[in-house]
């Protein structure tokens, strides 16, 4: 029963120790939450922010997991290894693009409202 939580926690610790991008995404998430708290966001806007944050973290975790499996399978240069890693990293780019759009739609009008 406890193993259900222990192994994912070990995975989380591995990400914190070895995946600089994951840590950067976590720090960015904290900054976005602080920025969101400065504005009076609606419940729906917070939900979009949460979806944006978790989608990037989720894709980064999957990307790292793919990298581990590829590195386990081969140390040599392999075209399929390249495809696996490159396509997995594109998933992170897609999630980041979605999150950037969500962030712009929510924050840009509020920043303009502050300036006016
Ligand atoms: N075994 C391999 N065969 C072919 N190409 C590879 C192989 N390993 C890595 N690559 C290429 O090098 C790139 C970087 O791979 P690497 O494992 O260093 O990821 P990374 O730079 O640590 O990624 P991230 O910054 O997301 O952690 C891959 O996207 C891929 O294009």
Explain what this protein looks like in three dimensions.
With 116 residues, the protein is mainly alpha-helical. The protein has one domain: Helix Hairpins (Orthogonal Bundle), CATH 1.10.287. Helix content is 89%, strand content 0%. It contains 4 helices and no strands. It has helices at residues 3-18, 20-38, 43-73, 79-115. Helix 2 (20-38) packs antiparallel against helix 3 and helix 3 runs antiparallel to helix 4. The longest helix has 37 residues, at 79-115. It is elongated, with a radius of gyration of 17 Å. The chain starts with a helix and ends with a helix. The mean pLDDT is 96. The structure holds adenosine-5'-triphosphate. Adenosine-5'-triphosphate (ATP) is lined by residues 21, 63, 67, 74, 77-78, 81-82, 85-86, 89.
Proportion of strand residues: under 5%
Bound small-molecule species? adenosine-5'-triphosphate
**Biggest β-sheet, characterized?**
none
* Uncertain runs: none
Q: Tell me the name of the CATH class.
A: Mainly Alpha
The amount of helix comes to over 70%
CATH topology term: Helix Hairpins
Tell me the radius of gyration. Answer: 17 Å
**Average pLDDT over all residues:** 96
Total discrete domains: 1
CATH architecture: Orthogonal Bundle
Tally of strands: 0
Keywords: ATP-binding, Cell membrane, Kinase, Lipid biosynthesis, Lipid metabolism, Membrane, Nucleotide-binding, Phospholipid biosynthesis, Phospholipid metabolism, Transferase, Transmembrane, Transmembrane helix
Membrane topology: Multi-pass membrane protein
Organism: Macrococcus equipercicus
InterPro entries: DAGK, DAGK_sf, UDPK
């Amino acid at each position: 029963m406890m193993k259900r939580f222990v192994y994912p926690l070990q995975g989380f610790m591995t990400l914190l120790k070895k995946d600089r991008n994951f840590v950067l995404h976590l720090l960015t998430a904290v900054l976005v939450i602080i920025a969101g708290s400065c504005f009076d966001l609606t419940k729906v806007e917070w939900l979009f922010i949460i979806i944006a944050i978790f989608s990037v973290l989720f894709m980064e975790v999957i990307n790292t997991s793919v990298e581990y499996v590829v590195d386990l399978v081969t140390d040599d240069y392999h075209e399929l290894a390249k495809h696996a890693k490159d396509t997995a990293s594109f998933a992170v780019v897609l999630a980041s693009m979605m999150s950037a759009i969500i962030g712009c739609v929510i924050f840009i009008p509020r920043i303009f409202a502050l300036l006016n």
